[in-house]
Amino acid sequence: MRTAAIIVAAGRGTRAGGGLPKQWRPLAGRRVADWTLAAFAAAGIGRIVVVLHPDDRAIPLPGGVIRVTGGATRDASVRAGLEALAAEAPDVVLIHDIARPCVTPALIARVLSALDTAEAAAPGLPVSDALWQGRDARVAGTQDRAGLYRAQTPQGFRFGKILAAHRAHPGGAADDVEVARAAGLDVAIVAGDEANIKITTPGDFARAETFLRGQPAMQLPDIRLGNGYDVHRFKAGDHVVLCGVRVPHDRALEGHSDADVGMHAITDAIYGALAEGDIGRHFPPSDPQWKGAASEIFLAHAGDLARGRGFAIGNVDCTLVCERPKVGPHAAAMQAEIARILKIDAARVSVKATTSERLGFTGREEGIAALATAALIGQQGETHAG
Q: Per its UniProt record, what NCBIfam families does this chain match (predicted)?
């Protein structure tokens, strides 16, 4: 699933004080904007649009981000970001306020996971405080808090649907969920994060710095690395399947499933990072239902398991070891297929090949080996156990 993010940064943020717009002010050793952009990069979002005020077009930003000039209102700025993506439309888009620098890769992953089955999703926190109605600085009544949520970002949408919704909306919406609902979209609510505050007033900088400096410790990144290794021997046939791509060859690979040695190694790398064993634990070869199964099933399960535990897939790297077939002409397609299955940007996937200089079983062209590494990024203090 191709994913992009729009980071809305065109506001002036005058209520936060300090002279500079709040997104460019320092916070815990970096600018507010730097924390926000780093969280989306860590979540594996490779295509990021930053919507800027016209006066900020020359502001330094990380390499690779797409700069777009915003409008006079928030919804006009979001519309500008959506239009900038339309020519090469992603499948889903996340829309986030630049002034929420404490957003975590885990929260981003929860929104993306909800989009597997929903056309829109957004994080929210149930309202727990009593609510009053006020008039002339006096309590004039109370409001039932049942079913009420505090809205947060990032808010996620199927790209075509939210673009059409913004094009049809008259303007003046408080957020993109309001635009989506006006177009009849059903919006799923996912668990928000108390740390995901929006910097609005001067005191919010101190609160945000407390979270970002690791107080509480749950805000420190939890980075897991896993390795995978797999081997399959050749048998009679006319093609091999490597990283989800059918490659013509004068032999095939032998295995209980489709023998996709590359995808098996990547799957085991993700399981390893989760301390979840290997493919055999989850899909026993003794079970006949997996005979000839597509390895996409295994890899998708590993990816879903990681996201369900609050981890974003930072990147995967796979090396195929063989004399033949030649992998180079198919590497880009393999990269795209792995990215599709794992629901991450293709820029987070590396597929490459090497030979063993005619040494060993791969050198004798008896089979193919694969090695893989996967990096998972989560948050300490969250419950990762299954």
A: ispD, ispF, PRK09382.1
User: Domain 222-379 has what CATH class?
Assistant: alpha beta
283 in a labelled binding site: no
Residue 255 marked ligand-binding: no
Task: Report d(CA 164, CA 182) in Å as an integer.
Answer: 11
Using 70 as the pLDDT threshold, list the residues of the chain that sit under it: 14, 16-18, 214-221, 379-386
- Closest residue by Cα to residue 367 from 356, 375, 376: 356
Residue 27: in which H helix or E strand, if any?
strand 26-27
Rounded to a whole number, what is the distance in angstroms from the first to the last CA of the chain?
Answer: 25
Do the domains spanning 3-130+143-219 and 222-379 agree at the CATH topology level?
no
Tell me if 361 is assigned to a ligand binding site: yes
Q: Is the dihedral of CA 192, 196, 197, 203 positive or negative?
A: positive
Task: Write down the CATH number for the domain with range 3-130+143-219.
Answer: 3.90.550.10
* Chain Cα centroid distance, residue 202: 30
CA dist 136 and 326 (Å) reads 77
Is 230 marked as binding a ligand?
yes
Domain parsing of the chain, residue ranges: 3-130+143-219, 222-379
* Residue 262 is labelled as binding a ligand: no
For residue 18, give the nearest of 99, 119, 72 by alpha carbon: 99
Could you give the count of Cα atoms lying within 13 Å of 41 in the half-sphere of its Cβ? 13
At position 212, the amino acid (one-letter code) is L
Nearest CA to 320 out of 254, 370, 382 is that of 370
Q: Contact at 8 Å (CB) between 268 and 278?
A: yes
Structure tokens at 97: 């306020």
The reply to whether 17 sits in an annotated binding site is no
Kindly state the tokens that stand for 225: 């690395």
Q: Is 356 part of any known ligand binding site?
A: yes
pTM: 0.62
Residue 278 annotated as lining a ligand binding site: yes
Greatest pairwise CA separation for the chain in angstroms:
87
pLDDT at 17 (0 to 100)? 67
